[in-house]
Design a protein that fits this description.
Blueprint (H helix, E strand, L loop, with lengths): L5 H7 L3 E7 L7 H15 L22 E7 L3 H6 L14 H5 L1 H6 L10 H12 L4 H5 L9 H5 L6 H17 L5 H13 L2 H18 E2 L2 E2 L6 H4 L12 H8 L5
Parallel strand pairs: 1-2
Antiparallel strand pairs: 3-4
Helix pairs in contact: 6-9
Length: 255
């Protein structure tokens, strides 16, 4: 089922046809196919049926490919099936109804998802197929406002918002077992500094020293070890006097 006809051309011209198909695409009977023929077109483009609907039933002399091979691809789909919450993502019929209503997809576009599966369905399917060890896949479940529009639009009633929440919990569990990223390490260090008065005073003194050591006429434009960060931005000057010092000098602003 397609809208442009290029798929029909690709499967009729070669002498040997090899189709790689995800195992979730297998449909039990022709009667079930009839349901999907109606459901997909109406949900995808609002038409009664797809412009190009083709059926291949084997090899025929002098007509189309003379060898046909079907490769059923698992590629972690059985792992997804074992997840009682995440398995519902395999019901997807690729109609893109969830993409059409998603405010995040509308602004980010398909290439922002780093996968052949964009939009809300990609945010719940790609992390399950590829795992959560890659930072891009760990971010995908957060590419949603949880407004629920995708779940309302889905013709096969995939609970996309619920799966997003489920995957976010798995991301948290995964990140606990990974070495801390530079950002997480920096946030931990900042929490330790802000949580202890003595450490905070020491940080203030260090900021004052950095003002003297790294400042030029444009402010702080370079610090050793942070060339990538400073390549696109400058750091505002630390104040000549901290709020704590000003408070002590003016007795709380009274003099």
């Amino acid at each position: 089922m397609e809208s442009e006809g290029n798929g029909r051309m690709c499967v009729t011209m070669p002498h040997i046809l090899i189709s790689v198909v995800g195992i979730e695409k297998v449909i039990p009977t022709w009667r079930d196919v009839e349901v999907y023929l109606q459901l997909l077109a109406r949900s995808a483009t609002g038409e009664r049926m797809n412009p190009y609907t083709s059926v291949w039933t084997g090899v025929h002399d002098g007509d189309g490919p003379q060898e046909v091979h079907i490769v059923l691809l698992d590629n972690h789909r059985t792992d997804v099936l074992a997840d009682e919450v995440g398995r519902d993502a395999l019901r997807c019929i690729r109609c893109a109804a969830c993409l059409n209503v998603c405010p995040v997809y509308e602004r980010a576009g398909g290439h922002a998802y780093g996968s052949v599966y964009p939009g809300p369905i990609g945010a719940i399917l790609s992390p399950q197929l590829r795992g959560l060890t890659d930072p891009v896949d760990r971010e995908l479940p957060y590419a949603s406002t949880l407004c629920g529009a995708c779940g309302d639009a889905c013709p096969v009633e995939i609970p996309i918002p619920a799966i997003l929440e489920h995957l976010r919990a798995k991301v948290v569990d995964t990140e606990r077992s990974l070495p801390p990223s530079p950002e997480r390490a920096a946030m931990k260090a900042a929490a330790a500094v802000f949580g202890h008065p003595l450490a905070f005073r020491a940080a203030e003194r260090a900021a004052a020293l950095s003002r003297k050591a790294f400042r030029n006429e444009r402010g702080i434009t370079a610090v050793p070890g942070f060339a990538g960060w400073f390549g696109a931005r400058d750091l505002p000057d630390p104040p000549a006097e901290s709020f704590r010092a000003w408070w002590a000098r003016t007795d709380g602003g009274t003099r």
